[in-house]
Amino acid sequence: MSNVDKIxxxxxxxxxxxxxxNDLCCYVLLVMAKIYPKSKWECAQNEWIRIHDMxxxxxxxxxxxPYAENTRETVRxxxxxxxxxxxxxxxxxxxxxxxxxxxxxxxxxxxxxxNKGSEESVKGFLKKHESLKSIYASKKDKQxxxxxxxxxxxxxxxxxxxxxxxxxxxxxAPRFAPNAKCLYVGDTTEKDLVKDVETLKKxxxxxxxHDKMPDVVFYDEKKDWLYFVEAVxxxxxxxxxxxxxxxxxxxxxxxxxxFVTAFxxxxxxxxxxxxxxxxxxxxxxDMPEHMIHLNGDKFLGPR
Length: 303
What we know:
By secondary structure, the protein is of the alpha+beta class.
């Protein structure tokens, strides 16, 4: 088994994400430990080293096609940043633009290498340090957005689009659809976060066309009204084409249909204002108490 495969197996055992198991990442750790094709692993070292010198050793011992000098930033971002988080490497605390800036392997990781990734050495390391997969998973969890839907506590993945969907459920609905039940909420990573299939089918939805579902759907049973809400941060307003798609999706639905485009702020609304279909509604999260009605004389009259 090659040195690259050996260290890749060690990274897998230590819970390193697949992206940081690539050949470049393996090369970096090998040359930092001064493990070359004929080296003994028990003689691994952790001397201070510059990225420039790492690249030189990689090209000398492991690469038939040398890496270019401008690969240094790739090494820093794709390997060393992650390995520092995982406690595999440490730096000397100087400014990154200093000519004396250096990295080295931590003593704990050096022990793992000297023992060729033995089960005991890996367990010892993981007792002291959380795995990189676990660290990154917990960071993602912290970024998730809590969402209460129909009395259930859910989480949306991070991002502007889901931030807007959260506002639609928590700010738009209580104001403009106060007695409505949420039948559907999409998510940027989990498409059908909420989907009340039974009620949607009962209303006449063609559920097989779920990819064309609006971002959020509410239903007011007393009024027999459906609210179709699109959360728009970059694409997908209620333009004439979208209305035709939704008409096809709901051709067997008898309930009254309300089409709403939601935006995070007025600036985003202005970008799409010319594309919006007539007889639709606009709601802006920054101004939650108000709506813009694109439906002629229906709401014309003195206040």
